[in-house]
Amino acid sequence: LMERKTHAKINRKEVILAKMRRSCSCTPQKLKNFVMDFFPVLRWLPKYRCKEYIWGDVMSGLVIGIILVPQAIAYSLLAGLKPIYSLYTSFFANIIYFLMGTSRHVSVGIFSLISLMVGQVVDRELLLAGFDLNDDVPPALGDGSLQNDSLSNTTAFNLTIAGINAKCGKECYAIGIATALTFMAGVYQVLMGIFRLGFVSMYLSESVLDGFATGASLTILTAQVKYLIGIKIPRSQGHGMLVITWINIFRNIPQANLCDVITSAICIVVLVTAKELGDRYKHKLKFPLPTELVVIVVATLVSHYGKLNEVYASSVSGAIPTGFIPPKVPEFSLMLRVAVDALPLAIVSFVFTVSLSEMFAKKYAYTIQANQEMFAVGFCNIIPSFFHSFATSAALAKTLVKTSTGCQTQISGVISAMVVLLVLLFLAPLFYSLQKCVLACIIIVSLRGALRKFRDVPARYYVNKVDTLVWVVTMSSSALVSTEVGLLVGIVFSMLCIIVRTQRPRTALLGQIQDTSFYEDDLEYENLSTVPKVKIFRFEAPLYYANRNYFLKSLYRLTNLDPNLEAARRKKYEKKEKQHLKKGNHRTANGLGIGETTLQLVPKQIDFQALVVDCSSISFLDTTGVNTLKEVLKDYKNLNISVLLACCNPSVIDSLKRGGYFGRDFGCMQEMLFYSIHNAVLFAKDHK
Q1: Where does it reside (predicted)?
Q2: 3-class DSSP state of 533
Q3: Which residue ranges does the chain devote to CATH 3.30.750.24?
Q4: Which end of the chain is more exposed for a tag (fewer CB within 10 A), N or C?
Q5: Per-residue pLDDT tens over the stretch 521-534
Q6: Does domain 507-571+604-687 have CATH number 3.30.450.20?
Q7: Could you report the per-residue pLDDT of 167-195, keeping only the tens digit for each?
């Protein structure tokens, strides 16, 4: 016999008070630890091995900085903002994560998926404010000042800034929406860190994230096609944007700009070829080829000296100013408008950052603090929002490049920020003549990894059909409806799949493996022997209110006996028999004799006298589950069939005790509960 340990009762009130006293106390050492935890750079920077790490950090920082510049300019198309704001975002995110992040390798900055989500909110609010979303108007000449942007759009919007009623043009209003959205997303992330809500990320399974990323990639691809072929179509908004955009594209194909089409074809061929060669010979290359930068430089020179904008009306990036705009507090009234949109943005940004951080921490054998990562990403959004930046996240592609080029610490992030700063201060105006179709090519080629997920569908289906269905549903809803709705649908659908799998789990009757004390599913394995007069039933899920009926139906179906129907049938015939005997008629209503009636009372012979329930897969019982087992015990007992439970875990045993399954004094417990199926079977044989 096994005896349970007696656990000392814990005074929860005292525990909570002790934790509160520890958390509310303030000592110099505790204050120092708090600062060191909040700024992890203070822990690792003094221990920095300069001779060992500096070369790898500088090289990876330079490479990422070179990649960041063209990507930042390109992703501004997704966000519906000017390229200068993307450069601001890349600069500030790297500096802040260097101070607050716990991962040594992730590259935090502008990310296509986050840019798309920001751009969708910006476009919606611009439409509601009465602005025209057509961004293909000729760029205004001049000093490129960001303050005088009302020339690019005739609509103006009144904003109250610092108590002054000021007119704000399209670009001003767009960045105002983006910064308000970014600020709210950062606030949500910090609050999630304070209340330790990082567990929310557990509900975003790998299938949901992959499907969401693939669906969003299709949306990004669709949004860039108009730049590829140089047509002017309205930017679609709302649900079904992908379908509407493709309809507009096919309707306007005759208006395609031949110059943009040729440029796009050349750029895509060059970029894809370079990427494929880089992937094939990456073990021979010390660092990736800066193909995007080379393409941008060559394309800008060709566009400038060939006057592609003036001669062929090819759409170009326009003036990109240098320097920094004075910081400004995000508008509170705009925060209220985008508060709901900021929540999925905050969750997606955090989940991608933490999952990448954990992946590379495991690969390089160190640990990260998920809660501190929440704070780091949150402040990577809050602080830059005052400097005209938008939401950020860790990006897989840049992180892989970072590690492959020798990155050791986040010093590489500072180097990348310095490269972006160089462009911000001196080189930005040189990109005036860069064609938008070139930027669209860079974005589309960067989606190769996400779009390749379609090739993995057969393998995914072979591994797990339910996960494949979750991926397809999430991907389809993200692409065909909207990214936010797609994420929500994916989470809800994956949870429903789990619920359905517990509502209708596998059930089986077990047979004995010959000459052993082990039992397995009779339908799955050959050469199993049945145990005479004993049925062994397995239920592979927790038993709770949602699957109670399925448990009973499966039990009755597999044992070929419904005790309630059998009891009702017996009572019915016994009642009829008594009525006929009282009348003195020795023949029953069926025209049968008394002996024949006895046979009719039990139409089929019950072929077992004991039912063993294998509880090894039942992880918990709720009140309904306990009552269900009590009902089974009572119903089968009325038919002189004993019910024995085997392989119950301590949690299930405690639930049964509290529910009164074993009686008041637990006296019959040793005859009802067994630690193995074989013990229960031997007991049933010995007590016929």
Answers
A1: Apical cell membrane
A2: strand
A3: 507-571+604-687
A4: N
A5: 999 999 899 999 99
A6: no
A7: 568 888 999 999 999 999 999 999 998 88
